[in-house]
């Protein structure tokens, strides 16, 4: 079934693709792309690599979850990154919505585990659900290429033909990501539901405290580097 234009293409407070930053970002990334599949693949790679994955950036301020804000800061955790990709896809005329799942990250750092109360369960991990060629596909742009290199995990690639979810294993066969529960898809960000789930699971976290040497921390020049990163849907540096 082809989705209607309304709920899957419209702009919202969070999916603010009617803002100049999101429009400009989208137009720059997809320039020259000849098909919706190619546009989706380019946008996925751009969001994945131009916004550093930062699990310590969890915030309660609604403004921090707007696509335009994510572009401005250049760092976010999985939920705002999924918001940005969904907004950019809609700006490109591609129906998209948000999806969420509980996942276990078996490569979680000790520091992050402590902040999360000793668990490796990430509730309401955010991904994007995109409609291409008559099908809904799942794509998670969370981990950028540089972070994947740190953990020896292949970057997630999206070709517009199949789901692009977190890898179950690292390059050497170590267990990485385990999908535990899928919460389904949403036309807009259910922020209150997500924050409630975070509070119930972890209590009131204090992200960013004493994590200067954690593997998830971005290099000092990450913002400048991601702003000018080339768009390569394959994630290859060749």
Automatic annotation (TrEMBL):
Organism classification: Bacteria, Bacillati, Actinomycetota, Actinomycetes, Propionibacteriales
InterPro entries: Papain-like_cys_pep_sf, Transglutaminase-like
One family name in Pfam for this protein: Transglut_core
Domain called Transglutaminase-like: residue spans: 24-140
Organism: Nocardioides alpinus
Protein name: Transglutaminase
Gene3D superfamilies: 3.10.620.30
């Amino acid at each position: 079934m082809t989705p209607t234009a309304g709920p899957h293409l419209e702009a919202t407070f969070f999916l603010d693709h009617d803002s100049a930053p999101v429009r400009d970002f989208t137009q720059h990334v997809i320039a020259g792309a000849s098909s919706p599949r190619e546009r989706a693949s380019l946008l996925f790679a751009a969001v994945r690599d131009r916004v550093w994955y930062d699990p310590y950036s969890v915030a309660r301020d609604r403004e921090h979850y707007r696509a335009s804000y994510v572009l401005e800061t250049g760092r976010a955790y999985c939920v705002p990154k999924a918001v940005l990709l969904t907004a950019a896809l809609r700006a490109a005329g591609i129906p998209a919505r948000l999806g969420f799942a509980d996942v276990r990250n078996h490569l979680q750092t000790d520091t992050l585990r402590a902040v999360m109360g000793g668990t490796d369960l990430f509730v309401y991990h955010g991904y994007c659900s995109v409609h291409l060629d008559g099908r809904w596909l799942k794509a998670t742009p969370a981990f950028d290429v540089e972070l994947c290199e740190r953990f020896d995990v292949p970057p997630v690639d999206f070709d517009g033909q199949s789901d692009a979810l977190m890898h179950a294993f690292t390059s050497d066969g170590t267990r990485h990501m385990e999908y535990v529960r899928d919460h389904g898809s949403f036309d807009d960000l259910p922020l209150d539901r997500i924050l409630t789930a975070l509070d119930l699971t972890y209590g009131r976290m204090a992200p960013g405290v004493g994590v200067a040497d954690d593997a998830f921390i971005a290099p000092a020049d990450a913002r400048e580097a991601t702003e000018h990163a080339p768009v390569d849907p394959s994630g290859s540096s060749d």
